[in-house]
Structure formats: structure tokens, C-alpha cells
Amino acid sequence: MKFLQTIKVEEFKEILKAIPKIKIKEEIIPLEEAYNRVLFRDIISPIDVPHFRKSRMDGYAVIAEDTFLAEEDNLIEFELIETIPAGEKPYIKISKGQCSYVATGAAIPENADGVVMVEFTEKIEDQILISEAITPGTHIIEIGHDIQKEQIIVKKDRLIDLATLGILASCGIQEVTVYKKLKVGLISTGNELVSDSVKELDIGKIYDVNSIILKKAIENTGASVEFFGILKDDFNELKCVIDDALKYSDIVILSGGTSKGEGDLGPKVLEQYKDKEILVHGVRIKPGKPIIFTKFGDKIIFILPGYPTSALSCFYVFIDNFLRKNSGYPLKETYSKLFEVGERIYSTIGRHEFKTIKIQDVDGVKMIFPIKTGSEAISTMFYADGYIEIDELESIIEKGEKKRVYFF
Amino acid sequence: MKFLQTIKVEEFKEILKAIPKIKIKEEIIPLEEAYNRVLFRDIISPIDVPHFRKSRMDGYAVIAEDTFLAEEDNLIEFELIETIPAGEKPYIKISKGQCSYVATGAAIPENADGVVMVEFTEKIEDQILISEAITPGTHIIEIGHDIQKEQIIVKKDRLIDLATLGILASCGIQEVTVYKKLKVGLISTGNELVSDSVKELDIGKIYDVNSIILKKAIENTGASVEFFGILKDDFNELKCVIDDALKYSDIVILSGGTSKGEGDLGPKVLEQYKDKEILVHGVRIKPGKPIIFTKFGDKIIFILPGYPTSALSCFYVFIDNFLRKNSGYPLKETYSKLFEVGERIYSTIGRHEFKTIKIQDVDGVKMIFPIKTGSEAISTMFYADGYIEIDELESIIEKGEKKRVYFF
What is the pLDDT of residues A102-150, one digit of tens each? Predict the structure, then answer.
């Protein structure tokens, strides 16, 4: 296995785009747990909304025809026969010359076909004087005005946002069929890594950071994450855990173990699988050159670099939207803006560099400055505002040049 | 209590801005649960990161001075005394003329002060031939290069994002002190409302939508929500539950019961409190004119309109960022863009209207069209792409005018 067969950023993006969406099964969940899930099938309304004629205003429900001659100087008298608050059933049918008080949202009594707003009426005991002529339908919300029974209200594959929750709740839908969450198995590898339960770090050891940050980053794409632990660089152990992870997961993401150094077993383990289809041995980027991407049947494995700053930046550039696509989530658009470079920036020829930068104010002008530490330092990411992309063939960005900054 | 004392949108926004941040206590939680929480105090690193000198490259750790004369045509011979993989402790001190193999990330042995990359070496059994002169410090990551012990690594009031999780994890921090979540008590009111557990809707009844959508909208601001149920328009019951909610919550949000109709008890109940300080009886907006905002000591109550579309739009315009501010979350910026109006739009004089609209393509030009249903329909929000703001004094927006669309 050679790492020299590396490809360009754009080639890797094209390969990822061409992979068909992973087929995911459905599950039924309560509506209150459905926020940010994706609908597996069209939703048909079981009811009309509203399912009764209701008033848009506080006023008097009448037979509209009875008001036709009403004017400010020709008040027409109606007999008040019922008061219908919101939520109550009307009991009395309206006849000629009669009216019922209806609150906003209250049901319209039988026979009434219009509502005169309270503002155009005067009440004298049980007599209501009306000063406005209305046409049939005035201030009445008809049955099914909002949603019609049997209508498809939400189409499959829609992400359930607040408006979708609202429209489903208004139809009384309690359970929905959604796609199961994409299952991602996460593995950290490296003899140097220890979990945060270790209080005293030995010389040579460092705390595992990727397990916590990649877990959250993956969950943000709509997927569920199972963490398979921090593994030593041991061929058999790694093979065994990858086998396990492949069984459980749709996608396995492993971090660490992709550099050329000794003890980097990830690629060697993947070589052992018979039905592998290794698509990418390395992408010419910095930081984090050696990403590996392998299809086992319909399963996919990514190997990310071990340094957290590299792992997370590779994740954002390549994997984030790949997972979102497979979760049925809208793709993430990176906010970007042009700024002037405030100091010369060096880059490595032959690798497309994602250079973390800070925006600083110089005499009132916002300018780009490189972060001095590299991908080996977690603080690089912490202090950065975003990154600029530097082409494979560029080695120096001069002060004063304009570059596009992509914000985290 | 009169609703005529209404104020303008901008006045209400100013009042909200002037309210001091609610004081919230702290709690200690595990780091893995700390994502999207806000730090209560500065975090000081308990360790140096790295806490040992490590190699930036795969190569040979040497005393730099020993390489000073090395060149491509003047190979210098070193004795290989140890191989140090990442994660292992070096056991042998380097002496003059000796070297140890170090993997990327491995600890540098005592006395060594530089690393020669593998590319500039040749290995013949236990002899290493070096063809490059290096200066002291080459390819060595010094102790504390990333983070220094006792250094403040993250300042209080910072939202814990992925980079923050990463920097905390790299210091081995397992628990953090964060602000407790802002507690919001949520109440739905209205005789017409029933929960989704009711299978058959009676005439006059509708499903409660606000409880589910406002709950999620509030949770998105970083707050926790306790739902106090759907209440009938009963003075004593409402008073009793508001009392309860005030005890539990920092902020109470009630929906329904702010129109002028009968049976709207929210405002009447608030009138009963002795230490109330009703700041706003109504805001001249459409939809959802009558928002009420009351301070009881350091507690705050908002009454939102009952229609879900109105409630959610009032929430977004006024309350969303108010809650975010109190949760220590970054404020939400609404994405907006100018478009041409595709058809005449009517508005009500005297109220600042947030008109929901759709963007439609007309001969290749994206144009604004009003949504035909109003705030009474949940589908209004569902089918809208965003809204335009129409000033109190405007009654007609002509086709062809340019308006700014705010996207949801």
C-alpha cells in the first residue's frame, strides 16, 4: 500500500458526491421526539383543520342577508340567542333576525353565514344593533381552510423543523415514521492516547481528544454515534474492533494511524478485507494529508489523521456534508468573505492547504493573520476565526493580497 | 387594563435590551455533557500540553551539534540506541554520536535537542547515516508549546463549542462549571385547546400546537422548558398555575389569551399581582398585536398570542434573542436579502406587519409573493420562505417595489 497515490481535494469531493445515498430503514417515534428527524413517508392529514366553521373575530354570527340594509344611520336589530366562547359547541340554530355572540376562534352556529365585528354593534340587553352590512362568508374561517382531510401535508424526506412540527401537531398526529438515524462507529487509535479518566499522564501519553469532538461533530449531522474505544496500535485488536464496528454501523470513522510512521496499522488492517474497495489512499491536503476512504459492500470507512485540529478540519471539509446528505439533512453552507492578508503566509507546494487564520484589526481594517501554531496544537483551532484555502501550487501569499476566509 | 396603550416594535425592542441579564447560578457537569453550555468561570490548565518534549516528525533524535557538518556528500554516522514509538517512554539518554528513532508524536529522549527527518537518513543495521545538518530545536515540540500549565485557557462566559471541548479535553479536564440552564415555564391557555392524546375533536376544539413548537424554539436558545399544561380560561386555575410557574422558572411564557375577546384572562390575572411592573400592554404588530411583558421582581412573563403562526413569529422577533442573551448564547442573526415584489401586497395601517411571503420564480427572476392565508393558519408558516416587514404607515406595497426578505 503506497501513500504516493494521492489525489486532489476536488477529486476526493467528486468521489464522495458520486456515492449513492446509503439506504436507511424507518422507525416510528412520538411527534415530540421528531424535531430534526427526517420523514420517511408523506404525511396525510386525518382531519380538516379547522374541522368546524369558526370566527376570525369577536362579533355576532348572523345570516348575512339580514344585514344588507344596515348602515351607520340605519341600525338593524337582532335578537341575541346564544353566547359561544372559543372551545364551546353552539347549541342553537340561527333564524332570521337572530344572532349569537362568537369569540375569536369560536364555532359558528348552524345557519349563520357571516360575522359582524363587535365594533359595528351595540348591545342593549338581549338586543344587538348592527350598523354594518356584511356579505356571506365575512369573518368566517371555513372547514379545511388551513388543512384539508386526506391532503398530503408534508412530503417524505422533509427535515422536521418547527413549522413541520406545528402542522403535524395541528392535525393531531402523535407519531411519525422517520428514517432511523445513520449509525456511525467511532474509533480512536494510537498507543499514545489515554482517556480522561487517567489522572496522571505518563511521559509519551496524551489525552484522547478526537473521541469527544468527533462524536459531537458527527451528532450534529443527524447521525448517532457509537464509540468503540481508544485502541492500541495492535493489528489483531484493531481488526477485531473494526469488524465489530462494521457490523453495528453504516459508516466507521477512525482517527489516528494514517501517517507514514511505524505503528500505523489502520491501512494495513483494511488491506486484509477481501471485499474492500479502497478508493482513496490519500488526499493532498494540509493539515491531515492521509485520509482513507474504503467501501466494504455498502459500508464506508474513513480514516482521519490523529491530530485533533487535522481530524476536525478533514471532517469539516469532506465528511460533514457527506454525513448530512446520508442523514437527509440540508447541506452546510460555509459563510465566507474576502479580506486582505496582513502578513506574508507560507504554504507547502504540492498540498492544498487549509490554513487556520485569525482576523485582526489593523488601523480600522480587518486583516488576515496566520495562526502560528500548526495542526499539532489544539489551540490552533481554538484561536482561529476560520481558514483560507491555499492552492497546491502556491507557496507564498504576500501581505496585501485578498483571500477568501471561510468561517467555522 | 387597556390595550390601547400599545407601543411600537422598536420601543419594545429597546425595553427588552435595557433589562439586565438574569443572574443564574452554576453547576458542575461532566465535560461530555458540556457541549453548547456556557462556562461559569475561567478554566486554568492543570497541565502543560504537551507535558513532554515530542517529535513533530518520524525521524532520529540527536544532539543537533553532532549533525553540523552533515551534507549529502558528507554522511555522518550515528549509533541507533533505542526505538521510541508514540506513547512510549524513552529509557536511554542520548550521548554524543548516538541517536534514537522517534515516531511522530513520540517523546524525545534525554539530551537530544533535534530530530532529523527519516528522509535525510539511511539505516544500515544499527548505524544511521545522516545527510542533513539541523539546528537545536528542529522538529521538536517543546513542553507547553500548545498549552501552558496554570494558563487561563478558556475565559468564563464562553459557549462551549467543539474547539472548546477539544482544548478542555486535551488538558484532561473531566468536569466543568457551567451556568445552569435558564428555566422557562411554558403554559398554553384556551378553552378550545386539547392535547394530541384526544382522538376525536369535538366541535369548537382544536389541538394545542404552541406547547410543542414553543418548547423546541425555547430549547434552541439554550434554556430548559417545563410545560405547565393546557389551561382552561379559568381565573383561579390560571392564577394558581402562574404562581407555580413563577416559583419554578426564571421566565414564564404563556400563549393564548391576549386578544380583546371575552375569556382572555392572562392580563386580568397579572393585574392581581402586587409587585407587578407591567411594561408593555401591547405592541403594534401584525400578526400577534398584544404581547404582554411583566416583571415580578426579577421574574418575567410574556404572553404570546394564541395562533401558532402569531406566537412563533412574536417569539422570533422579540423573545428568541432575549432568551439567548440570558442563556449566554450568541444572538441569532437573521439572513436577509432584497427582492422585487411580484404582486400588490396589502397591509393594515397602524400596525407594523411581519408579512409571511414566498419567493417564486417569474421568468427567471426571484420575486416576493404574499402567503394568502393569515396567522390563523399554521400552513401560513409552513409554506412561507420568510417574511417582509411593512411599516405602520404603509398600507400597500406595489408590484415591482424592492423589499428585504428575512428568511426563517
Answer: 998 999 999 999 999 999 999 999 999 999 999 999 999 999 999 999 9
Q: Determine the residue among B171, B373, B379 to mutate to test chain A binding: the one whose Cβ has the most chain A Cβ atoms within 10 Å.
A: B379
Residue A260 contacts B, CB cutoff 8 Å: yes
- List all residues of chain B from 96 to 155 with a beta carbon under 8 Å from chain A: 103-107, 141, 145-147, 153-154
Residues of A in contact with B176 (CB under 8 A): none
- Strand A345-346 with A396-397, pairing: antiparallel
Which residues from chain A sit within 8 angstroms of residue B56, using beta carbons? Answer: 376
| Buried residues in B215-237 as b, exposed as e (16+ CB within 10 A) | bbbbeebbbebebbebbebeeee
In the block, residue with C-alpha cell 408558516: B381
A59 to A111, A138, A381, B305: CA distances (angstroms): 16, 11, 62, 19
Asked if A87 and B165 come within 8 Å (Cβ–Cβ), the reply is no
Q: Which of A196, A204, A376 sits opposite B169 (nearest CB)?
A: A196
- Region A26-47+150-179: CATH code: 3.90.105.10
Interface check B381 vs A, CB under 8 A: yes
Tell me which architecture the domain covering B54-141 has in CATH.
Beta Complex (2.170)
Q: How confident is the model at residue A263 (pLDDT cuts 50, 70, 90)?
A: low
pLDDT in tens, A328-349: 999 988 889 999 999 999 998 8
Measure the CA–CA gap between B244 and B248, rounded to whole angstroms: 6
What is the residue extent of each domain of chain A? 9-24+181-327, 26-47+150-179, 54-141, 336-407
B159 is written with which cell numbers? Answer: 459557549
In tens, the pLDDT along B9-19 reads 899 999 999 89
Query: Is B182 at the interface with chain A, CB within 8 A?
Result: no
Please provide the CATH number assigned to the domain covering A336-407.
Answer: 2.40.340.10
Mean pLDDT across A179-197: 94
Rounded CA separation A85/A100 (Å): 10
Give A9-24+181-327's CATH code, choosing from 3.40.50.980, 1.10.540.10, 3.40.980.10, 1.25.40.180. 3.40.980.10
B306 interfacial to chain A (CB closer than 8 Å): yes
Question: What interface predicted TM-score (ipTM) does this complex get?
Answer: 0.91
Classified as helix, coil or strand, B246 is: helix
CB pairs under 8 A between A and B: 235
